[in-house]
Queue: 2 jobs
Job 1
Amino acid sequence: MKILVAVKRVIDPYIKIRVKPDGTGVETHQVKMVMNPFDEIALEEAIRLKEQGHAAEVICVSIGDKNCQETLRHGLALGADRAILIENDAPLHSLSIAKVLLEVVKKESPGLVMMGKQAIDSDANQTPQMLAAKLNWPQATFASKLVFLGKKLQVVRETDAGLEELEIEMPAVVSVDLRLNEPRYATLPNIMKSKNKPLTVIPIAELDVALTNTEIQTNEILRPQTRQKGIMVESLAELLEKIRPIIA
């Protein structure tokens, strides 16, 4: 069985985000980029499943410009067997991404598609569900535990009401949560080996998919408002006087 893992290149969550002066987006020039942390957890789980004998091959796929090859090479260094870049310079929203991944799934015929529950830049949490709907496959979202049961997959998922346990038939789409695992670090020998692993680049125009990005438009991106400086009060009575209009 193949496991296909979709990964996204995002801005490093540990650096300060800067909005462009014209408000058209965030600054990415000379900014450190990394694999989306949720996707890295999905990749780690796919590699563990292969190590346990549940999969024969782990494939990383990403959609973006040529710089995404760096992210895919990181995935290969972590343990993926090969990678696919769907090269595209224009930004895509969740539905278009799901359509592109649908074509990749048709070509690769994986038994399981995995990805993070959301990307930390858009926080949309839509692509896994849309892809499952397009494929007409079972899906499990927010997975915090996976157990293979023959041709079925037992999934523990995290919800607002607590933990929920599902059993789904494969092939299936699974999106993962933070508590599923702790991703490994890429060792130097594996980083060197990753340079020789296959990475296929496919221009998006070669895929049989009609993309329309007119449904969602971003008008402007704004910086967070600067927090006002607090004041010091001399007594509890003065504090109550200050907050009374707010809680009234």
Job 2
Amino acid sequence: MIELRLLRQFIAVAEERHVRRAAERLGMAQPPLSTAMKRLEDVIGAALFDRSRRRVALTPAGTALLEEARRTLAQAEHAVAVARQAGQGLTGLLRITFVGSAMFERLPPVLKALRERHPGLALDLREATTMRQLDELRGGRGDLGFVIPPLPDSDGLEQRPAWAEPMVAAVPADHRLAGSSRIDLADLADEPFVMFPQGEGPGFHAAILEACAKAGFVPRIAQSAHQMHAIVSLVAAGFGVSLVPASLRRLRPHGVRYLSLAGRAPQARIAAVWRRGDRSPALLQALSLLREEMAAPT
């Protein structure tokens, strides 16, 4: 097998058409370079240079080798670059899951920045409830999740707070409070609620129950739905009212009004979660970028 170093030296001589200039270009003495070219010819079994002229000229064998040598070196450099990028998390596949509300405001800029900074990294994006995401992570079917804390069981997982936003009330457009810009949560004490099921989103479910308890009532749950857009659609259809993250104001189906809550509004929190001990380069790159994006002013 021919060493890549010999091919690199051969290319320099072939392009310079002069052994001394090639040696200067390579930062080496002329005699060792001449010896290396003779060794290369011995390995190939054919003359590569016509030395009968003042300038070094390529023989047909040398001309053929020059093209292949350039291709071989380019491929070797590409292989090194690909391996280096993979080691730095710049290529490969990152499987990201998220609760639906994460995509309404804060997560899209993170994903956009991740794609722009690491275009060789393929992203597999899937919406899933918090509990489904935990199962995906533990089962090795996901790499990074965006869930609603607190987690009922964090065994085998690591988590980091990502962001938080206030909740707002979602009411039907013909509701008695629909014309208000701000209400007290206690104003909804007698209303039927559309809620995220406790078994799929225990953190969000618990946050609403706690907020209602502080307002002096226990919500009467009339209907459950597994996605935020489904909750809003059911509110529009008159099934009840709900508390949703404020970013859902971007989702404006006909028949819904979003009302701010007076006082200290309950918070909808999102946390990033991943398998404990996972230090894959792609995951570390994503977590680093998430930290940067969350520190940037909104």
